[in-house]
């Protein structure tokens, strides 16, 4: 294991890109091309290993050596048989942010032994939740999924090897790099006429230029909103969608936030309740500590409750002193028994004299 980590550290030192940015890969095959987002922002070992192999042309001229219709297509063996690899293995890496929940999930293949992945990967053809926690998913096809399905339908022999080779002419890492997205939470709560700020930091590392941005509200393009930062207000209550399409010459990538807008409080409402106008968590995912940021109309004491994904109470904190305006409170990841919680999705709820907001966060050790 020590030797493996030395190899990974050397690879990371030599890489000319951010270790925690979203990148994009494109396959040029004998049956057409398709593109995937590589989530090395949350799967740095797995994602950056794949990127390094692609950038050294490891995958060029290989074939999809295993095709199981309705299940997966698989590549990454230099022998074309499923028996080969890059000459090393990497540690297993899992995240609840990337699950085998749809067709097009990109994940590492391995043997039955732990930490045995190297260069072989597969692309799913449906949702397969039983693979979660067993195989490292690290990306998803975002364009050209029809080509993946076409590959899955080719005739194969008894070993699931195509009778006519499906060749990867080349596999290239594209220039678009997304370094940060704010808010990190994709589900937000606000109030009518309150400002909401959004920010996306993206760059084309091949052309050395900033990315292009288009902003939409409820799928309507906002004219003259073409910068990395976008500030808006909502005049109507209910559910709204904010979307940013980030692009360069090669790829378009949508980023979306779901916003719930509450009514504007009257003076009488403000006397009776203390509106919480916004809430967010950072970092998300978090390792041990996570900060919850929220805004109050007036000074008060709030109640903060933490629940697991099944709605069971994990911990609660009463009489948290809070001032008017911006507040930040930190959760240390401990449950009611003062034990560290396990990896997974958690829900938080902040209550103040009749008003409440909630959101989700992810523990990832």
Blueprint (SSEs and pairs):
Layout lengths: L1 H13 L8 E7 L2 E7 L5 H12 L10 E3 L3 E4 L29 E4 L12 E4 L12 E7 L1 H8 L15 E6 L2 E7 L4 E5 L4 E9 L4 E2 L1 E6 L2 E2 L7 E4 L5 E10 L4 E11 L4 H6 L3 E7 L7 E7 L3 E9 L4 E10 L2 E7 L12 E9 L2 E9 L2
Major sheet details: 8 strands, antiparallel
Number of helices: 4
CATH superfamily of the largest domain: Cyclophilin-like
Through-space gap between termini: 19 Å
Find the structural class using helix and strand composition: mainly beta
Radius of gyration: 23 Å
Based on Cα principal axes, name the global outline. Answer: globular
Topology-level CATH name of the largest domain: Cyclophilin
Number of domains: 3
CATH class of the largest domain, named Mainly Beta
Rounded mean pLDDT is: 88
Beta-strand share of residues: 35-45%
Low-confidence stretches: 1-18, 267-273
The secondary-structure element order is: HEEHEEEEEHEEEEEEEEEEHEEEEEEE
Structure write-up:
With 365 residues, the protein is mainly β. 11% of the residues lie in helices and 43% in strands. It folds into three domains: 2-174, Cyclophilin; 181-262, Immunoglobulins (Immunoglobulin-like); 267-363, Sandwich (Immunoglobulin-like), CATH 2.60.40.4070. The protein has helices at residues 2-14, 44-55, 145-152, 267-272, and strands spanning 23-29, 32-38, 66-68, 72-75, 105-108, 121-124, 137-143, 168-173, 176-182, 187-191, 196-204, 209-210, 212-217, 220-221, 229-232, 238-247, 252-262, 276-282, 290-296, 300-308, 313-322, 325-331, 344-352, 355-363. A hairpin with a 4-residue loop joins strand 11 (196-204) and strand 12 (209-210).
């Amino acid at each position: 294991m020590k030797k493996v980590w030395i190899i990974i550290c050397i690879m990371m030192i030599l890489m000319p890109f951010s270790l925690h940015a979203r990148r994009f890969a494109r396959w040029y095959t004998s049956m057409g091309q398709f593109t995937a987002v590589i989530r090395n922002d949350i799967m740095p070992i797995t994602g950056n290993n794949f990127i390094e192999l692609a950038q050294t042309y490891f995958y060029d001229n290989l074939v999809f050596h295993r095709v199981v219709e309705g299940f997966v297509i698989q590549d990454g063996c230099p022998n074309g048989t499923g028996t080969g690899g890059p000459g090393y293995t990497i540690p297993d890496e899992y995240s609840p942010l990337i699950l085998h929940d749809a067709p097009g999930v990109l994940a590492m293949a391995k043997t039955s032994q732990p930490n045995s992945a190297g260069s072989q990967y597969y692309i799913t053809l449906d949702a397969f939740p039983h693979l979660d926690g067993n195989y490292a998913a690290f990306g998803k096809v975002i364009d050209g999924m029809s080509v993946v399905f076409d590959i899955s339908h080719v005739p194969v022999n008894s070993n699931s090897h195509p009778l006519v080779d499906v060749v990867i002419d080349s596999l290239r890492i594209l220039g678009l790099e997304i370094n940060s997205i704010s808010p990190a939470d994709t589900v937000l709560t606000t109030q009518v006429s309150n400002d909401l700020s959004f920010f996306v930091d993206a760059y084309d590392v091949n052309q050395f230029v900033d990315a292009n941005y288009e902003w939409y509200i409820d799928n309507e393009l906002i004219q003259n909103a073409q910068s990395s930062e976008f500030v808006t207000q909502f005049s109507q209550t209910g559910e709204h969608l904010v979307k940013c399409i980030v692009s360069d010459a090669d790829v378009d990538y949508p980023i979306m936030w779901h916003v719930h807008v509450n009514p504007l409080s009257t003076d009488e409402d403000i006397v009776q309740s203390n509106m919480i106008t916004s809430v967010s968590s950072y970092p998300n995912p978090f390792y041990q500590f996570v900060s919850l940021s929220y805004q109050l109309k007036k000074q008060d004491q709030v109640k903060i409750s933490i629940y697991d994904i099944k709605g069971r109470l994990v911990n609660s904190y009463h009489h948290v002193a809070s001032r008017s305006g911006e507040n930040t409170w930190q959760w240390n990841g401990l449950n009611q028994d003062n034990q560290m919680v396990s990896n997974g999705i958690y829900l938080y709820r902040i209550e103040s004299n009749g008003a409440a907001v909630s959101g989700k966060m992810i523990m990832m050790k």
